[in-house]
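G., before I forget:
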Amino acid sequence: MPPTIADVAERAGVGVGTVSRVLNESPLVSDHTRARVLTVIEEMDYYPSDLARGLSTGTAGVLGAVVQRMTTPSAMQRLRGILDVASDAGFDVILRNVNNVDDYRDQVRGLLRPDRCAGGLLVSFKPSAEDIKRLGTNPVPVVTVDGQLPGVSGLFIDDERGGQMACEHLIELGHQRIAFVGDRDDPIGFGPSRKRLAGFRKAMDDAGYAVPEQYVKIGAHERLVAMQHTNELLGLEQPPTAVVAAADFHAMVVIDAARLRSVAIPDDLSVIGFDDLDMAGYLDLSTVRQPLYESGARGARLLLDVMGARGLPPRHVEMALELVARGSTAPPPIKR
Amino acid sequence: MPPTIADVAERAGVGVGTVSRVLNESPLVSDHTRARVLTVIEEMDYYPSDLARGLSTGTAGVLGAVVQRMTTPSAMQRLRGILDVASDAGFDVILRNVNNVDDYRDQVRGLLRPDRCAGGLLVSFKPSAEDIKRLGTNPVPVVTVDGQLPGVSGLFIDDERGGQMACEHLIELGHQRIAFVGDRDDPIGFGPSRKRLAGFRKAMDDAGYAVPEQYVKIGAHERLVAMQHTNELLGLEQPPTAVVAAADFHAMVVIDAARLRSVAIPDDLSVIGFDDLDMAGYLDLSTVRQPLYESGARGARLLLDVMGARGLPPRHVEMALELVARGSTAPPPIKR
DNA sequence: CTGTTAGCGCCTTCAG
DNA sequence: CTGAAGGCGCTAACAG
């Protein structure tokens, strides 16, 4: 049995209240007493029980994170940011992976309770209006990372603007026949793909270029599907000279598919992604960078703020996007 | 304020003991009473406090996982296995990312305590003999996933055998000049690279082939380093016809570096990795597969077992390795 | 400044 | 089968 606060108190010849005070860094303890208690704590290798403390204070010393599709590289980066900040602040974090919205409600309600965690992060949660209604309010402070929820502070990016940036980059390089490859909406509410597509369309529209419907490829978030789409694109009578991918994931597949057909990147085909995952750098892929690690870190800080001062009006912080031009984009091939 | 067990008891017209009993599925409750209590619980949307339950039972209803370099793809897969099994068993898991052994001790001692979690998983922890001594014993049941600790149940693979398998595959294809590219030991104790290298050497030795020292490239776990090493290898007067990479990570870099030099894979150079990450499939990379998701899942189950029956003699389970021959390995080019 | 005491919400005897 | 009561370890409010 590990020593309890009472053991420490007894050995130090003080009351438990005093020990508790030094534990919580209360100024109401004489330096002398504090030193003694600290010594005893050290001697006995005592550490306070989180459980008991939690019961007493009414809140667990842990943060909860509900992450959509946790194993994707982007979610991982966000998670890393969250963990770093949380652990610096002395919080552990409980993790919950989620794959669809039906889970979501249960997960959120099951985890984001005062007896389980002091605060919660909703990562990449894009609920529909109806989802929101079903979610209700949370008994613990919550923030969103990569997502917006009315009444809840959070971090988000402008996906539409990002899609537009990607496309404009291509247009500036001289491309006119540009295709889009993306996936269907996320299982949880509206995904970013659709918004990025909207941005793509806007850029094309602004430039006065048409977007034939065969140029827009939307399918499941699977390698084979994107592969197939790329093949269809490249097999067209009038193939595109560039592709805007909804994410680096798709961009990679497009590049692979092109390679297999001996279509040179960027000479024959320019490709731009979205996210700037590690692999984008490796593959020399042009992309629209969104802050991943940073969004996790800032999200965690935001949560800490909210926990510190409840009742603040919710803040929605937009994270900046950045175009990263690398070797996968270049001017279109000379017409002939 | 959420309802407490007392509220439920009152409303149901029974004692708290009875409510507690139905909560814990004790058979000592009449069906009639049970039904009533259940109804009230439903009505009041009551859920028991984990904190209080933990204080009372002396153990938290959470598992702790200390993961080395959590964001690597392989660690992620393991984590996924752990989370899936844990959540099926009704456990949440607290995550701790660790990057060096100095952290490790603190992390382990700070997290693996009865007041914080009911059991712990040490993922990819490869301690030196000294580390082990410094770690001491844990007050909660612990298992290792991808690692061995004396006196602690766990899952492991035979890295040496794996290195040997990879090399033998190449030898069977007819290669004689085979190089090895790997990284330095993990920050935490001995890494797998060295063992895989040993297996590689053994296979070469058994086949009677020499391994010139320039054929063995060990450096930091960084893309640029592996890139540089590959370039050195390919620039040799007598370059290797095949490369055994310590991990898929290195194999990918080797392939990229080769491509940049217009060295065809597998026509001019065969490459085999280790792990079988998702990307290995995408890249058509031959590799030695180690069970990743599975090791996490089985590790979690093992932990559950150990928690259920403490005092069992520790079990060390070896996970099977499997050679996956894909398109990155082929017979060596014809001599000329 | 410090000791004492009452809970926090639940589980677990112990009588009934 | 079931109600009542003690205690898990800690914090916070209250007298000194």
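The interface with chain A takes residues 2, 47, 49-52, 54-55, 60, 62, 70-71, 73, 76-77, 79-80, 83-84, 87, 92-97, 111, 113-116, 139, 223, 252, 256, 279, 282 of chain B (CB under 8 Å). The longest strand of chain B covers residues 62-68.

More on Monday.
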